[in-house]
Amino acid sequence: MKSRDVLKSNWRAITNTDREKGIEKPEVEKTCEGVILLPKFDLGHKSFFQTIKERKSIRRFSNEALSLKELSFLLWTSYGVRKYVETRKVVFRTVPSAGATHPFDVYVMVFNVKGLDAGIYRYSGLKHGLCKVKLGDFRKSIVDATLGQKFVRESAVVFVLVAVPYRTEWKYKQESYKTIAIDAGHVCQNIYLASTSIDCGTCAIAAYDQEKMDGLIGVDGNEEFVVYFAPIGKLT
């Protein structure tokens, strides 16, 4: 198969999937103890038309901190859970996904959020909270991992999409690689629109050192790996 062929449809070839074999469906997200629950919010009242009109990539941020309510809003609108059918391990989020497989974990690199220690967290949509991964100031590390894109360190947070391919492979085998890429776009567009609606900015990034990013986030680079991320901050 040529590299570009992954973009073509090959649904007729999907046979003998793990789903068809009766293999247990993977969990919709990792378990987590000691979740930091995020607050309720009443934000994002800018009109849909105005939000679409203003949406653009932003690479300059002010040094103003995000509030916990703003972070809560951004995470829920980008990858929150609307409904969970526990008996079927089916989750319905605020973004579409092929076969409702939702193959990502969203990690949050916190640089400047009121009431939250700097560090790396994983978002739990089921609990609408944050799972602490490691604390520290990782501004220098993220610039290094993004091949010198210094504007990233000026953001308040960075949302990092980590693919867990088997969630989709279980159902769609080789076609999952196309749909996972498409699903990443769904999530990132919501990040753009949510950010714009509360006068923040973002810029999606796909240029980075794979090994360094995976190491920074703390994933194995095989069963889980970084595919896309977006720094978010207040407008200047």
Automatic annotation (TrEMBL):
Give start-end of the signal peptide. none
Question: What CDD domains does its record include?
Answer: McbC_SagB-like_oxidoreductase (cd02142)
Parts forming coiled coils: none
Name of a matching Pfam family: Nitroreductase
Q: Which InterPro entries match?
A: Bacteriocin_Proc_Enz, Nitroreductase, Nitroreductase-like, SagB-type_dehydrogenase
Query: What residues does the Nitroreductase domain cover?
Result: 52-234
Q: Name one GO molecular function term.
A: oxidoreductase activity
The name of this protein is Nitroreductase
According to its UniProt entry, this protein's organism is: Thermosipho melanesiensis (strain DSM 12029 / CIP 104789 / BI429)
